[in-house]
């Protein structure tokens, strides 16, 4: 119960977020509802790939892999602007968009790890790119400041010293992407309720 309260506490602070200029816009509400469903679909595909990693490599429990994870240098794309007390749609959208671009690139490691599921990974990459483009377009439509970073600036794909490290790396890329999508979903849902 305490954990649930702590996880939802940042969202309570958002109810006073100054977004009156967006809340009544029908096109904005339509954008939010469509992309809520799209985010849910992407998350479902990520969960399906996590099940494949679990079934194929017997890597299912994050807490058992934390020591290996620390050596891999795989980090979570930031989304602190989507649940901070000073929530601003512009900053949150920018972080979601940028994070989707990062995970789009990271999914190449999953395609390498699971060649038999390349079709699902490619669909996931396409969906992540499309959702990122949707957010970029909506930001432009709303007159929000947008910053586009070149894809080269995202850094190279992680390199793994062994097949086991590659498997654990794939596990954490998917686990982090799932958490990222859950936070993005909550932020979009919050905006839809304003």
Automatic annotation (TrEMBL):
<dbReference type="InterPro" id="IPR030474">
    <property type="entry name" value="IL-6/GCSF/MGF"/>
</dbReference>
<comment type="similarity">
    <text>Belongs to the IL-6 superfamily.</text>
</comment>
<dbReference type="Pfam" id="PF16647">
    <property type="entry name" value="GCSF"/>
</dbReference>
<dbReference type="InterPro" id="IPR009079">
    <property type="entry name" value="4_helix_cytokine-like_core"/>
</dbReference>
<keyword id="KW-0339">Growth factor</keyword>
<dbReference type="GO" id="GO:0006955">
    <property type="term" value="P:immune response"/>
</dbReference>
<dbReference type="InterPro" id="IPR030473">
    <property type="entry name" value="IL6/GCSF/MGF_CS"/>
</dbReference>
<keyword id="KW-1015">Disulfide bond</keyword>
<dbReference type="GO" id="GO:0005130">
    <property type="term" value="F:granulocyte colony-stimulating factor receptor binding"/>
</dbReference>
<dbReference type="InterPro" id="IPR040117">
    <property type="entry name" value="GCSF/MGF"/>
</dbReference>
<dbReference type="GO" id="GO:0005576">
    <property type="term" value="C:extracellular region"/>
</dbReference>
<keyword id="KW-0325">Glycoprotein</keyword>
<dbReference type="GO" id="GO:0005125">
    <property type="term" value="F:cytokine activity"/>
</dbReference>
<feature type="signal peptide">
    <location>
        <begin position="1"/>
        <end position="16"/>
    </location>
</feature>
<keyword id="KW-0964">Secreted</keyword>
<dbReference type="GO" id="GO:0045639">
    <property type="term" value="P:positive regulation of myeloid cell differentiation"/>
</dbReference>
<dbReference type="GO" id="GO:0008083">
    <property type="term" value="F:growth factor activity"/>
</dbReference>
<keyword id="KW-0732">Signal</keyword>
<protein>
    <submittedName>
        <fullName>MGF factor</fullName>
    </submittedName>
</protein>
């Amino acid at each position: 119960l305490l954990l649930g309260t702590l996880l939802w506490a940042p969202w309570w602070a958002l109810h006073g977020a100054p977004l009156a200029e967006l809340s009544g816009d029908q096109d904005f509400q339509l954008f939010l509802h469509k992309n809520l469903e799209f985010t849910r679909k992407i998350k479902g595909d990520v969960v399906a790939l996590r099940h494949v990693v679990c079934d194929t490599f017997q890597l299912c429990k994050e807490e058992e892999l934390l020591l290996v994870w620390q050596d891999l240098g795989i980090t979570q794309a930031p989304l602190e602007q989507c649940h901070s007390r000073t929530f601003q749609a512009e900053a949150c959208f920018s972080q979601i968009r940028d994070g989707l671009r990062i995970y789009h690139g990271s999914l190449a490691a999953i395609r390498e790890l699971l060649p038999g599921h390349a079709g699902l990974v490619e669909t996931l990459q396409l969906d992540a790119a499309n959702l990122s483009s949707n957010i970029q377009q909506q930001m432009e439509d709303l007159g929000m400041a947008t910053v586009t970073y070149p894809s080269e600036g995202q850094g190279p794909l992680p390199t793994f010293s062994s097949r086991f490290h590659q498997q654990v790396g794939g596990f954490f890329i998917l686990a982090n992407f799932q958490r990222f999508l859950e936070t993005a979903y909550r932020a979009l849902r919050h905006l839809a309720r304003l």
